Amino acid sequence: IAWVIVRLLLRLRRGKFGSRLLVKLAAIFALVGFMPGVLIYVVSYQFVSRSIESWFDVKVEGALGAGLSLGRATLDALSNDLSSKTRAAASQLSATTDASAALSLDRVREQLDASDVVLWSAAGNMIASAGQSRFQLNPDRPTTQQLRAARAQRVVAQVEGIDEPVAGATSNARIKAIAVVSTPSIGLLAEPRFLQVTQALPSTLVSNAIAVQEAHREYQERALGRDGLRRMYIGTLTLSLFLAVFGAVLLAVVLGNQLARPLLLLADGVRQVASGDLTPKAVLQGK
Prior knowledge:
By secondary structure, this protein is of the alpha+beta class. Helices cover 63% and strands 11% of the residues.
C-alpha cells in the first residue's frame, strides 16, 4: 500500500495525465470503505465492551462472595459446636482408665453422632477407638502440631475435604476436633490424653460449598483476564477496519489504472498527431 501511494504521489507531482483521476478514485474508494467500516467498528466496540462488562456484573460477584462467606460461616459454626461438645466429652473421660475407655468412647460417639472417636496418648499412640478407626490397621494419627495446639488451646477443630477439587470429595468432608483429656493423677510423669472426634459433614452442604467455591474461583480467574479479553476483541476489530480501508485503497488504484489506461493511450496518440506524426497508432486490446 505504501509503495502504491508513493508511486501515485510521484506521478501526481510530475504532472502525468490521469494522475488526478487516480487520486480521486483512490480517495472515493477509501471513503466508501472507511465510513461503513467506522460505523461497524463503533457499534461493535460498544457491543463488545458492554457485553464483556455484563459478564462480570457487580451483583454476580457480590452474590458469589456472599455465598462463599455463608458457607464458611456455616462450617465455622459446625466446627465451634463440635469443639464445645468434644471438650465436654473430654472432661467426662478424665476419670476413665485406659482399660475401660473403649466402652466410654462408644457412649460418646452415640451422644455426639460422630463417625469416629479415638483416644490418643501424648506420644500419639491409640489407646482406644470407636467407629471407623476400629476397622483400620493404620488410622490417621494427629500431627505433632495438632497435639501441641490442642494442649495450648485445650481444644482445636478443623474442616477437611472441602478444598479438595477431586471427584468424591464430598464423602471425605468432615470436621475433626481434638480436645485434651486431663488426668486425675498429679505428678511430673503424668501425661495428658487427647480425645479426637470426627463428624462427617452433610453431603448437600459439602456439594453446595464446593460448587460455590469453584464458581467463585472461576469468576475471579475470568475477571483477571477481562482486560486482556477486551483488548483482544478491540484489536481484532481495529485490524479488520484497517484491512478494509487498505483493501479499498489498493482496489481503487488497480481499477483506476485500468480506467486510465485507455485515456493515457489516447493522450499519447493525440500528442503524436499534434507533433506531426500521422502514422497509425497503437490500439488498446481489451473489453
